Amino acid sequence: MGSCVSTSRQSSSCCCIGIGKRAIRTHSDHAARLQQLSSIPNRIIMNGNSTTSCVFTQQGRKGINQDAMIVWDDFMPEDVTFCGVFDGHGPNGHLVARRVRDVFPLKLLSFFSSHDSKSSGDREEDKLHSLWRDLFLKSYKAMDKELSTHPSLDCFCSGSTSITLLKQGSNLFMGYIGDSRAVMGSKDENDSMVAIQLTVDLKPDLPREAERIKSCKGRVFALQDEPEVSRVWLPFDDAPGLAMARAFGDFCLKDYGVISIPEFSHRILNERDIFVVLASDGVWDVLSNEEVVQIVSSSPTRSSAAKTLVESAAREWKFKYPTSKMDDCAVVCLFLDGKMDSESDNEEHGFSSATHDSNAIESDDGQQYNSEPCLQRNFTVRSSSDENDHNYKNVAAVEDNSGDLNWLGLEGVTRVNSLVQLPRFSEERPTTS
User: Fold this and answer.
1) DSSP secondary structure string, 250-290?
2) Could you give the CA distance from residue 188 to residue 186 in angstroms, rounded to a whole number?
3) Any idea what the Cα angle at residue 395 is, between residues 389 and 398, rounded to 5°?
């Protein structure tokens, strides 16, 4: 696989990242970095709410919660907020997702602080688009490179999706890989709430994704017992069967067409745009875009919207698929006007304040989130009796629909794993030319 899968080297570089009047020096020592991150105000990674958003995650029925999320208000001066949802898969998927959650925003800040700010004749909107597109691309590349050289985190057959959003004034910038999704709640000309899908679920059966994978000698096909689920396979073995076309990690497939290059989008907001929902596929498997927007917009309080949405998804799982194991769910609800409920509303619904203390930081020891636990769907569900012994993170199966951002998912009846099995390499493995 080349240097991509080497775990013998560790980056010794560090950089000073300015955050307003604060500065964070990134080190190779992860514990020190977590301790520094915990002191940053308006950065939340646990269930709760900030000055602009609410976040909530609930563990499914497949083992440790492999979803992670972040909201970082005051990410930069001048009304800049950063949000992200990360859905891990594979044996170390939870560690990959949390690593990306903690490190990726720092890389984005680092590249921003070092970017060339030479003036040009472009319009301000064009300059911002070009700037953030370049910064997102560099940050995603650097994040995957760091994972490939991490001395103790094995990402060979583990990885994570990523959907990252940066709101700067009336501009919304997004970079994403994998099949987590972003949907906006906006009002139409009749003042009715409508759902606008902002991202595409990047699955192996999308024509452009399949073409790239096959050109790199990877294989894309579905198993006989799940013909609706396209997967990525090694050229010389029926493994690992990854159900997405782009991801952080998964270095066993990086030479065969699975990439970490993000799709990038830029949207200019207007007064009709109310909120954005970022969520892992555990939500989209059982709730449509329209249902998600309706649930969030009708939530009793803004601070309870994410929790209400996750609980609605959990009920749908139990009702529709009582014999299958519910997937992990993670949700970020960003309210675009920057307004949240009063402190009394937050206390009534059991949410934390805008900031969190150091004990809210989770380490790499596998600590789980604990919480107690309507359809255009994007899912396939396997009954518990048919599941294999792997407790890997499950994802949805989808189909392309001629480039429509709001295309329908397959109405399947089985819930499938992100990875079918780990690669089985042998001495006779053929080499690629």
Assistant:
1) -TTSGGGT-B-PPEEEEEE--TTEEEEEEE-HHHHTTS-HH
2) 7
3) 135
* Phi, psi values for residue 289, rounded to 5°: -55, -45
Distance CA 104, CA 144 (A): 10
Distances (CA, A) of 316 to 103, 182, 214, 322: 34, 20, 36, 9
Indicate whether 38 pLDDT > 80: no
pLDDT digits (tens, 9 = 90+) for 257-295: 999 999 999 999 999 999 999 999 889 888 999 999 999
Cα→Cα distances 39→33, 70, 101, Å: 10, 15, 16
Residues whose CB is less than 8 angstroms from the CB of residue 50 and which lie 6 or more positions away in sequence, other chains included: 42, 44, 71, 73, 340, 354, 355
| pLDDT value for 119 | 58
Pick from 336, 363, 386, 158: which is nearest to 250 by CA? 158
- pLDDT (0 to 100) of residue 367: 39
Residue that the structure tokens 């198993």 belong to: 223
Determine if the pTM surpasses 0.90: no
Amino acid at the residue 399: E
* Residue 234, both tokens: 């090694």
CA 14, CA 11: separation in Å to the nearest integer? 8
From CA 50, how far away is CA 334, in angstroms rounded?
Answer: 9
